[in-house]
Amino acid sequence: MSELTITLLRLGYLVLLWVFVLSAIAVLRRDLAPRGTPRASRADRRRADASPAAAPAGAAAAAPAAPSRRSGPTRLVVTTGPLTGTTLPLSTASILIGRSPGCTLVLDDDYSSSRHARIFPQGDQWFVEDLGSTNGTFIGDTQVSGPVPLAPGVGVRIGQSVVELQG
Amino acid sequence: MSAAVETPAERTVEPTERRPARLAELFLLILALAAGITAFAMVGRSVTGELPGDFWPVSLLLTGIGVAAHVVLRLRAPWADQVILPAVVLLNGLGLAMILRLELADTKGAAAWSQMMYTALGAGIAILLVWFLRDHRWIRRLTYTAMLVGLGLVVLPLLPVIGREINGARIWVNIAGFSLQPAEFAKIAFAIFFAGYLVTNRDTLALAGKKVLGLQLPRIRDLGPIIIVWAASLAVLVFERDLGTSLLFFGLFVAMLYLATERFSWVLIGLVLFGAGALVAASVFPHVGARMDVWLHPFDNELYNAVGGSFQIVQGTFALAAGGLFGTGWGEGYPYLVPYAFSDFIYSSLGEELGLTGLLAILLTYLLIVQRGLRTAIAVRDGFGKLLAGGLAFVMALQLFVVVGGITRIIPLTGLTMPFMAQGGSSLLANWIVIALLLRISDNARRPSALPMRGMVAQGGAMHDPIVVGAHDGATPGTGVPVRRPAADAPSRGSTPSHPTEAISRHPDPPTGGEHL
């Protein structure tokens, strides 16, 4: 066999090894991608990008909630992530979100902490608070640290999921 | 994996019993087998000019092992991780090809066919384990049995009749003509024991103690277990003269302690203890000191020519250098110039013929297995499974580090084997058992649960008393201490609070072990 063939075989074998490694990594990447349908999640991301424009202002976010004081939001809806479409009725109780089985909304998500965040009513307003989670809770691109007022329709990102108040 | 059931108004989420097709595993398995079988053919072509004599039996057996394991996983562990098996088959195939190549070059001791038999035996045991062990939590009842078995296995090589000392390390036993390295099996037994022990005792080890410089230090009296394991691993170092095994056991314990308690202080204490022990051993015991000299001054002419000196490690370094970036190609190098090129130094043999590019692919394949193991530990719900999967994955990573670090002179050279590649029956059998356990745990971790805990809303929606942050008067809450308000104050709006644990305990198969890790 000629020198060229040997070299090609030698390099071809290394390519084969790397094809294996890279295919395996491609398989692993499926774990990282959000499990919702890509189209839905992209739409949600757009909505999440658009709506919290008012949220960081705090007072501005509270203003749209004020007219609907009597009715207020009636449910918490998961808009992105494996549980998309899940709905919880709101009461006066706070809602605990995380992986722990003791939470109100239990997420099947390795990127959320066991007790990740809490959404709770205070006066006429709902607030969201991060409970010291590892990966953080986000409204748009802003990380939630202390209790932050949460207006209806504003997406809160927890791990791979986005939840929002509706109604 | 849970899939959403779509109904127009309100969608509820229920786990559906749809079994994964495991096509990803099949595809990767085909690639892995292709890599292994191509290597057999290339080895034969370049060493003897034709296919090696064992080509067809070895290729068919390897394919049979892969296909059988794949079918059994489909039947008995359909949710198990899909990357682990192909990665193991690839590593095993590459190891076989290198041993075959050395055997064709008439290297004394290289025996590809016996390695093939041990591969078949190991895979067979792994398949049986996956088939008959339906739930890894069953192993937890063997916690203290595993401790006794592990200690027995460690002591075995020191016994007078069956113990064997080979190349200075007394880590072998010889029973009925078969040589065994009991430490390889002991590491599994110890992983089981540590997992069972730590899952019950981790609270004292994690919580008690005072804080110094931001580190939560344990109490003096809680240092007992780590001191015992430290003394045991030092005893292994002194009496069996094996740094690798000693490092493996101690590292396993410290890593699992860290996994169980999340206290970094344990890692620090472990490192300090082992460093001190190793330094004292190196200065007091001549055989340990000799290893250190070989590590620090391998190119010293006197050491290079001494019996048991640095000849092997220097030749291994030369082999790696000869390989360069892309290697010489299968069968084109001179790996047989290194003593034990087929077992302890198979890494440098592969480095010579596949080059750095090939070595990095191999190391990444190991990394994939370890990552899948750690990922399984994150995903599985019971504490015992978490610790066992984490411990087994870590011990494989540590073993690889000790072997590769020894050959590349990052740490002193030890007698550990490269999992799945180096020639040796004990190592192959033990590591296939580790893989079977990891696959079983990952199947349980990824299996959709019927428990009302994952991806489901607890009955009645909210079940906690309303917790008010800050003052009662409805002002903007500060970041103060939560104030608990009696549930009776809250006007109930339809939903009655229910406690989630009721829902769980009604289920016939409640999870055992701690849930919060």
UniProtKB/TrEMBL annotation, chain A:
Q: What protein does this entry describe?
A: FHA domain-containing protein
Species whose genome carries this gene: Isoptericola peretonis
The UniProt transmembrane annotation reads 6-28
Keywords from UniProt, A to Z, are: Membrane, Phosphoprotein, Transmembrane, Transmembrane helix
The record's region (Disordered) falls at 36-75
Which intervals of the chain form a coiled coil? Answer: none
Entry's Pfam families? Answer: FHA
Domain spans labelled FHA: 95-144
Which positions make up the signal peptide?
Answer: none
Q: InterPro entries recorded for this chain? A: Cell_Proc_Reg/RNA_Proc, FHA_dom, SMAD_FHA_dom_sf
TrEMBL record, chain B:
- Keyword Membrane recorded: yes
Task: Spell out the subcellular localization from the entry.
Answer: Membrane
- Basic and acidic residues composition bias: residue spans: 504-517
Top-level lineage group: Bacteria
Protein's membrane topology: Multi-pass membrane protein
Where is it predominantly found?
Answer: membrane
Which keywords describe this protein according to UniProt? Cell shape, Membrane, Transmembrane, Transmembrane helix
Q: Spell out the residue ranges making up region: Disordered.
A: 473-517
Q: Does the keyword Transmembrane apply?
A: yes
Kindly list the residue ranges recorded as spanning the membrane. Answer: 26-43, 55-75, 82-100, 112-132, 144-163, 175-199, 220-237, 243-260, 267-288, 354-374, 386-408, 420-439
Question: What is the protein's given name?
Answer: FtsW/RodA/SpoVE family cell cycle protein
